[in-house]
Amino acid sequence: MKAVKYGSDGLYLDRNAPIPEFEHDHSVIIRVKAVGICGTDFDIKKGEFPVVDGVILGHEISGAVHKIASGVTDFKQGQRVAINGTRGCTNCYFCNVNKSMFCSKGGASKYYGVVRNGGFAEYMVVDDADLCAIPDDLSFQKASMSEPMSSLLHILDVAPIDDKEQSKVLIIGGGIAGLNILNYLNFIGVKNITLIQRSAHRRKLIADMKFKNVTVVSDTDLHSEYLQNSGNPGWGFDNVIDCSGNTEAIANGIKYLRPAGKLALYGLPSKDVSINMNIYDLMVLEKCITGALYQVNNFKEGVDVLIELSRAGRLDFDNYGVKDYTLDDYEKAFNDLTDRKIIKAFILPST
Amino acid sequence: MKAIKYNKTRGLYIEHNVSIPKIINPNNVIVKMLAAGICGTDLSISKGNFPVPDDSTLGHELCGVVHKIGNKVKNVTVGQRVAIDPTKGCNSCYFCDTKIPNMCPKGGIIKYRGLGLPDGGMAQYILTDDVDLHPIPDDLTSSQAVLIEPLSCLLNAWKISNVASKDHSKVLILGGGIGGLHLLNYLDFIEVKNLTICQRSEDRRKRIEKLGYKNVTVVSDVSLQEEYLKHSEDELWGFDNIIDCTGNPDAIQTAYNYLRPGGRFVIYGCCPANTFIKVPLQALTFKEKHISGSFLQPHTYGVAVENIVKLARSGRLELSNYGVQEYSIDDYKSGFADLNSRKITKGILLMD
């Protein structure tokens, strides 16, 4: 079968990858229908995100059940499903304290598209427990967004928004990750959202989406506002979610927190970069900075939220550049994203 | 009356001619002071390292006896011994609404008795509001009651630590001064099972070992660093919760490496202003580490009162075992000096 893999020289299309087989009696072979390209795939491409050499990439996956092993009772041939890439074992310290991504048997150690073969392929093998059924009215493309959606929900676990009416939320970065978060928070009624987006072109795109209660600003304008308000202890944000991974943005993100504010790092920061953190400032203002990695036992919740958003007509970003590609065209997909011709790319391996 | 004050030119001094405060509104209470603790922060203030308004009276760890009450006061009676909560918010901002008055821009440090505008209790009398006062039982000594305020701040740090499991989470306390000791004592009392305390000096380690805690490992900074290096390949080594009680940036920088995945680091000890630590960013994300500050207390004072009473009644608050020593208010200089030279972990000024 065809599969896009990671090699030390970069990504490549293997036309003769073996079709996967059952690994145990709860295995399911999936016919992959849609897989999203994520910012992390770019980091992988650059060699900045560690993956297993020769692994098939693609971790935002949906498909149809192709074959089930003898012990599988919950799913049948042809069933439409989304795939949970980082399910934990539910039985170790980390799974028990809601940190299943660190589970030594599951979590990040089994991540499809990073450690285990993922969805940039015609077929993949998964465990039945990784599957979540999806309704017919949710397209495969949208269903593949369950993975980013559940990791978005996880951010809100590690850095909760305390008060939807009053908390001031800042999203750094208006790419697909920032947009997804903006869309979701706006949908659930968070009243004070600001989004920083450097490029004027993208700022306009987002402004045209006409979200109510959302302010879109440039990084320079927000920084000016911060400087102007240096004597005002009530200025700032209660929640800052960084979707950029940019060091300077993160350092500023800490400055823009108001007392007891929380900064969540969602975008992957660059390798070998540190920031100098003022600990007195952190202590006296009870600021918090936290990583937010993948998702924790909330994949089904992610799917449910996607269904809700889709049925409310809140998942149509087509006007903003969303495109489908075949496996053969994977390079074009990456390039179109790099050139910012589109905001999201889906690979449909079965076409 | 007498009061211990600070100003930038004179430093720490005792003023003998301070007017005794008077009732201003019907909810006021005049409290005759019995005991006031000297805190690490007070030491910083005395050295000019922590800003306070000039000529303010120090003292935020307080116990006194009700002397006079305003005509609407119902919760205390004259002659009753009370502990005094220094926190005050504005009651009408986002921070007060979300129950963190210690972060209120008008309250917070500004209105914290003994650190901001309201006069502290290293004095013979103070003016309070009735809501600030918590009666204490007769079997709790005034000096033991001084430990309520530090416990209320530690309870804030513990809340922010958000420990996942008392039985399984591995907790590290950095520093065996009064902050670390007090926290260790409380956590052991509430049965946190895996406690480690890191203390540099051998004599302070000996004091902790003498206290005889069952589930507590006492280590030095050197041995802990050795452990860390030995386990550099072991993903499971480390601590789920680290609470710094040293206020030492180097200790914090080193111990940051000791967090396990998903771990939370709380900065409780007061570092000097303009000190920094280097935080590697990718590790923060890949290990989902969490760093937060903890400052003062959001009215955890009431819960602290209950717990101090329980600790005392369990025999866990024999103050000399913790390196705490009493001084008369006139001898305040010795109290500050002995704290500075680490001869004691805390000084308590007695007013009578």
Describe the structure.
The complex is a heterodimer of chains A (about 350) and B (about 350). Chain A has about 350 residues and is an alpha/beta fold. Chain A contains eleven helices and 16 strands. In chain A, helix 4 packs across helix 10. Chain A is globular and about 65 Å long. The model of chain A has no long low-confidence stretch (mean pLDDT about 95). In chain B, strands 3, 5, 6, 7, 8, 16 and 17 form a seven-stranded mixed β-sheet that branches. In chain B, helix 8 links the parallel strand 12 and strand 13. In chain B, about 25% of the residues lie in helices and about 25% in strands. Chain B starts with a strand and ends with a strand. Chain B is an alpha/beta fold. At the A-B interface, helix 2, strand 12, strand 13, helix 9 and strand 14 of A face helix 2, strand 13, strand 14, helix 9 and strand 15 of B. Strand 14 of chain A pairs antiparallel with strand 15 of chain B, so a sheet runs across the interface.
Quick recap:
Chain A is α/β, with parallel strands linked by helices and 351 residues long. In chain A, 27% of the residues lie in helices and 25% in strands.
Rg calc of chain A = 20 Å
Topology as H/E string of chain B? EEEHEEEHEEHHEHEHEHEHEEHEHEHE
Q: From the alpha carbons, calculate the radius of gyration of chain B and give it in angstroms.
A: 20 Å
The largest sheet of chain B, given as strand count, sense and whether it forms a barrel, is: 7 strands, mixed
How confident is the prediction overall: mean pLDDT of chain B?
95
The SSE string of chain A, one letter per element, is EEEHEEHEEHHEHEHEHEHEEHEHEHE
Identify the overall geometry of chain B. Answer: globular
Strand content of chain A: 15-25%
What is the average per-residue confidence, as pLDDT of chain A, rounded to a whole number?
93
Give the strand content of chain B: 25-35%
- Overall spatial form of chain A: globular
Class from secondary-structure proportions of chain B: alpha/beta
> What is the helix fraction of residues of chain A, given as a range?
25-40%
**Terminal Cα span of chain B:** 12 Å
What is the strand tally of chain A? Answer: 16
Instruction: Provide the helix percentage of chain B.
Output: 25-40%
Number of separate helices of chain A: 11
* Quaternary structure: heterodimer
Chain pair sharing the greatest interface: A-B, 48 and 50 residues
Which spans of chain B of ≥5 residues are poorly predicted at pLDDT below 50?
none
